[in-house]
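FORM 7B: Structural annotation worksheet

SECTION A. Query
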Amino acid sequence: MPRPAGPAGPGPGVHPASLAPRDGRITKGPTLPDWRRARGMLRGRWKAVLVVLLVAFVGFGVYLDQNMTRVEALPAESAGSGSGTNYLIVGSDSRDGLSAEDEERLATGDVAGQRTDTIMLLHSGRSGDVLISLPRDSYVPVPGHGSNKINAAFAIGGAPLLVQTVEQATGLRIDHYVEVGFGGFVGAVDAVGGVEMCLDEAMNDPLAGLDIEAGCQEMDGRTALGYVRTRATPGSDFDRVQRQREFLSALLGKATSPLTLANPFRTVPLASAITETITVDESDRLWNVAGLAWAMRGASGTDGIQTTVPIGGSAGGSNLRWDRERASALFGALQNGERPPESSFGP
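SECTION B. Predicted structure
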């Protein structure tokens, strides 16, 4: 016998949801495909947003890289050697780009020409991260100009002669060159919202526009510039190079902190301030500057080393003569990828 016909299914064009009970009961309908479509749409939108952010990030990086000033600083044939990577960091006191109001506000004066207030050598390699201050009064041979203060090399022949002088004096090959002017330094400090430093004693130097109390305090760009420039302390230039190392490490530590990097309102002004006012070698790119920042962060860490080239006495007047034996031990260790002995630390 033929089987009795069952309940009739929905006719053509009738959605199953229309057959749901109308007595208030809650039933599960075929909503899973709808959720899958919604989730797929959200995923697609997130991918689109990430692509846009990536393109913007790359574009901003290209803009910054192209905006840096470049000079032919590194010689075609280096007089130095060794393993690892060496950065020469120069703080130029050039007033280029500063208005008369800026010069008055920052107490820089209007001296023409170029000199160096800061010369540092940053080494990164198997020996770890090592930051060495080279006092500007160091009396060393200047290629083609006899012996003179090391900062005279910069005044005479700019970046190229300074690099040659440092390579000849240390025996190390300089791989990257970074020069920062007054305006760039002040802009970088202000871009990160200031840098906290703790002072044992109050400092007052009208020539540097500095008047600060003892204790921990947040320094803005103007105050920070006076802090790293002043020599009005008992240790004069030795105190100054130590402050410069400590402050630069604190600045780059804050600049590379997650709180700064995750905040575009800090990162964008910081990147712009740095790249618009620094000078690098013609072969240097933006990622080389980033590598310097991370190496500097390492030098200020527990395993890093910060020191001054060892000094052996005076070479007449304010000229400083390096301790040849200890300096050779310091730079020789870096050449061989070894950690320098503490006995080679200066001054």
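SECTION C. Observations
The first strand starts at residue 69 and ends at 71. Residues 102-110 have pLDDT under 50 and may be disordered.

SECTION D. Sign-off
Analyst initials: ____
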